[in-house]
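Message: I would value a second opinion on how I read folds in token form. Give me a protein, with the fold worked out from its sequence. Write it directly below this note and I will take it from there.
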Amino acid sequence: MTFKSLGLSDAFIKAVEEKGYTTPSPIQQKAIPHILQGKDVLASAQTGTGKTAGFTLPVLQYLVETKHEKYRPLRALVLTPTRELAAQVYENVREYSKYVDIKSAVIFGGVKPASQIATLRRGVDILVATPGRLLDLHDQKAVSFKRIDVLILDEADRMLDMGFARDLNKLISFMPTKRQNLMFSATFSDDIKKLASGILNNPVEVETAPQNATAQKVSHKVYKIDKKRKTEFTIKLIKDNNIDQVLIFTRTKHGANKLTQNLVKAKISAAAIHGNKSQGARTKALQNFKENSIKVLVATDIAARGLDIPLLPHVINYELPNVPEDYVHRIGRTGRAGAEGEAISLVCSEETEYQSEIEKILKERLETSIIEGFEPIDTAPPKRAATQSKGSFGKKKKGGNSGSSNENKPKGKPHFKGNKPANASGSRRTGAPKKKRY
């Protein structure tokens, strides 16, 4: 199958080919024809499978074919949960529309709104935005949604996680009821289906990977480590294996900063990216990481969905996420577009329940080992009810171990598989968590 056979015009095929793509991915093959036909779509696919192009290309073609000659009202809106994802989607919109007369813009918090307001007043066909800043600008009458033809919710499940349900409902209330709606998500959770039922009209459901699946070419490994020695072990992993590019996840902003400082002290180039960092600092850190001028990017889960890093070979979970689905999103940064990747998790005694919950959602045991000299001597806390995830969890976990049967003490040093550097080049919903404005 080719992009032309999907019904895309030559201008978009040329732009796609210039990015090195000749064959549409499964999600693109399934979603693009339906979108071109004007149908509402509810699509789920794991990260790194071409979801962005799956909605960007057909929406851009629609805008070109129905373009107003004399004026340029906002007609397509893409909503994303984070600044990084908004910037990534916007860049794709720009690249795919380079051979057509389409005006696009991106809006998010962390920067002064004056330039964004000026851009909107000059006229925009398609806008990529985060909910918080977009609502602010709408309150200032800097943007109108009266002519919206297409609404796209990207990473819709993450928007729910971050407490944007109320903002989404408010934004949608300002739009025409007659419009095309597209919802893309990494998972098909019950909450997502509930949200979709209040927004989409008779949607076509498109799914290209099992719910909560990780990329097939990603290998998973767990090291049981004493909590106080995680930093030391992380440094050893990177140095002993000459790792040139690795994304490390922590649970807290403070933890990200502290780990970054310790890596730098160990003469490992690193930067942190999280919600307390200015937009400029976040953009600079990501760019330096992509260009391989720093080896390590330490991130909180705000970055789990919005980072586009080509051929990222390694991800380290310095701390396991307390919501198992977030493991899938973290690991989705590696093993993208068919490339191989490796996911390393450092698990202390108090995190064994988290590992068990992750194994349940993945439906597989994670290879677990203990490294001689780094054996966990910390003790697990008293048994507690398992953290309620967005799936079927919430039952009290019996036992304090992950249940992994292949624990061992391998001789020699821990290693990553492959040490070559990367080639960097409105629904009703109550009880929503407090929203964060990005």
Remarks:
- Residues 4-207 form a domain with the Rossmann fold fold (CATH 3.40.50.300).
- The chain has two domains: 4-207, 218-369.
- Confidence is low (pLDDT under 50) at residues 210-214, 384-412, 418-438.
